[in-house]
Amino acid sequence: MKWLLITLLIILYVFQTYESNYLAVPVISTIHRNGRETFAFQNNHYESREELIVGIKNMFQDVPKNYLLLHVSLVHFGNRINNTGPNNRFLRADLNDNFGYFNIHDLSFLIRVVVIRRKLKYICNYSSFSDYQSANNYLDNIKKYDKMKSQYELVGKDVHGWQTWYLIWKKCYYRCFSRYNFRELSSRLENEFNKYKIYFRNGAVTMSFTLHISAKKLAKTLAKCKNKMCEKCANCAGSAVVAKISAPFANIQVNKWYKEYLASKQYPQTYKIKTKNLQSLFSQQTTKVGFGVAMKGKYMIIVYHCYSSRNDLVRAVKKQFQFLPTTFLLIHLLSISHGIMVNSSILENKYYRVKLNDNSGYINIKNTDLIVETSGSGKKLMYSSNDGYYDSYKKACENIDNVRKYDRVRSQFKVIGKDMLGRETWYLTWYGCYYKCFSRNNFFFLGTKFIEELNIYRKEFSLNPVTFNPSLYNYASFAAKSIAEGKNKVVHRVVSTFSNEAATFASAPFANTQMNKWYEQFLSLKVMPKRNLKKTKIVQALFSRYTTKVAFGAAQKGKFVVIVALYK
Q1: Is the pLDDT reported for residue 231 higher than 50?
Q2: Range with top average pLDDT, 295-309, 425-439, 485-499
């Protein structure tokens, strides 16, 4: 009997440990005048409660039926809308359940479904997941580890260290620091680390998104690795600090590093530092760090990446831009900090060459027009040249090559029309503005100049000026890029036949003469009105009194520039 009781207790414990958590799917209820109730979820409409339950169960087949809830978040009564609140009006996804709505008072372990950018996300404890199983495991870990509140017993005896830890982590245990997919842990560890750095008078550090991404990738790699931790750490980058710690005690890791660093300072002759790169982490030269974390069973992998010297910076930059020869790679020094004083060096154009054998200092580059600069970080890294932004280094280089080739051409005045007003207007609008000028900002400047020139022509014919329309520009720019890349060319031709869109090709250095050509066509159309209407469609629209808004999009296609005009 005794053994049976023990066995039953073990089974009960296992079931409690690995039980599922409730999933709440938000639906909208509409109560009609005849009392009939219909439901909607993600543009799907259901005529009855039974039909709704069947549809939701089919959509979430990986969730146990008895843990699937339907949360009626909004109720429509004709023109009235009632927000039911976060814990009211739940339905069980069980066809045999004939009961009405019920309320849930404790939402601590409830997983909610939300739609973000047309994708389903599972939200719990301020963290988001792409599937139910990940969110369920996350809540199971909270149930297991948030009970442990004895971290203070493992904090070092150093008074400053203990006070700092207590100030940062008071009443913040596993549930607390695992919020926002452990970003709360990252933020508090950084805050604690900065207080230790200031205590040593080594200056505070700032979080780097690029270092955060690299640290996160390394943490995930180590979490998947089946070999011993030390074997993997031997191959880590020179600026990485790695630790493996029991999950509920992750909030004492920086204090452990602080204790170890303090011991190495107090007993430099006898104490051998255990953690690789710990000295560089607390060094005065370390100004930027990135934090990464990943779960590995009952343990947590914590990784810190830091820039501790110029060599580490060069090594990190070379690793990120492996596709570039080092002779073409420069580091731009934006500012120099001297304590609390910051000296901006943007106007000085200070650069550092990324070459292993280059021991020289910074160099000054007077002409930065033909340099590709990076903007953003991580996956959102963009490449800028001639005030335009591109998603790849190759495209930015192509823009610079085009500037070199086509900006030399200065004979545009030879191809403009003979009409005196047209020539004067063209000179007034485009004087000194050639390819480099009008291709700025991904040809946005070309479009604005077109509108400026067009309004001068329209004024001559007693027509009201047209205005720039941002929404039209977005589509015109997209259409020009699609045609230039050979995508949907036929589609755009068909669309232009039935809509207010027109596309044309112009020789790249002579793109700034296109509006003058349309003006000349308009003049000839007045003389010969029976010309081909398809070819003169854009001309008639640009000089029509009904046209009030226009936008021009442009994109490079070999030796030509694709120009798309939209109007309304």
Answers
A1: no
A2: 425-439
The string of DSSP codes covering 50-65 is: HHHHHHHHHHTTTS-G
- The model's confidence at residue 14, banded by pLDDT at 50, 70 and 90, is very low
The full DSSP string for 205-242 is -EE-HHHHHHHHHHHHHHHH--S-HHHHHTTS-TTEEE
- Of 4-18, 63-77, 404-418, 428-442, which range is least confident? 4-18
Q: Establish how many alpha carbons lie within 13 A of residue 327's alpha carbon, considering only the half-sphere containing its beta carbon.
A: 0
**Conformation bin of residue 475: beta by default, left when phi > 0, alpha when psi is -120 to 50:** alpha
Q: Are 550 and 515 in contact (CB under 8 A)?
A: no
C-alpha dihedral sign at 223, 189, 275, 292: positive
Give 98-139 pLDDT, tens digit per residue: 556 777 777 888 999 988 877 899 999 989 999 999 999 999
Token pair for 51: 């039909």
- Is the same domain home to 180 and 134? no
Q: Count of alpha carbons within 13 Å of 466, Cβ hemisphere only? A: 31
Boundary residue ending a domain (290, 311, 332): 311
Cβ 457 vs Cβ 451: under 8 Å: no
pLDDT per residue over 319-362, tens digit each? 778 888 777 788 776 655 444 444 444 445 677 777 655 555 56
Whether residue 170 sits in one domain with residue 65: no
- Kindly indicate the confidence band of residue 274, based on its pLDDT and cuts at 50, 70 and 90: low
Q: What is the pLDDT of residues 76-101, one digit of tens each?
A: 876 676 666 656 678 887 756 555 67
Calculated CA dihedral for residues 223, 229, 234, 237, nearest 10 degrees: 30
**DSSP-assigned beta bridge partners for residue 221:** none
Task: Check: CB of residue 176 under 8 Å from CB of residue 277.
Answer: no
Residue with tokens 């719990």: 124
Q: What pLDDT is recorded for position 117? A: 79
**Across the strands, what pairs with 549?**
467
pTM of this structure: 0.53
Query: Residue 332 falls within a domain, yes or no?
Result: no
Give CA–CA dist 24/261, Å, rounded.
47
Gap between the Cα atoms of 256 and 366, Å rounded: 49
CATH of the domain at 492: 3.40.33.10
Give the start-end residues of each E strand in 248-339: 288-296, 299-307, 330-332, 335-338
Q: Are residues 199 and 120 in the same domain?
A: no
User: Token digits for 412?
Assistant: 């545009």
Structure tokens at 179: 């919020």
Which residues in 257-291 are b (16+ Cβ under 10 Å) and which e? bbbbbbbbeeeeeeeeeebbbbebbbbeebbbbbb
> Bridge-partner residues for 70, per DSSP?
25, 91
Count CB neighbours of 174 within 10 A.
22
DSSP string, 434-485: -HHHHTHHHHHHHHHHHHHHHHHHHHHTT-PPPEE-HHHHHHHHHHHHHHHT
Q: Are residues 134 and 157 in the same domain?
A: no
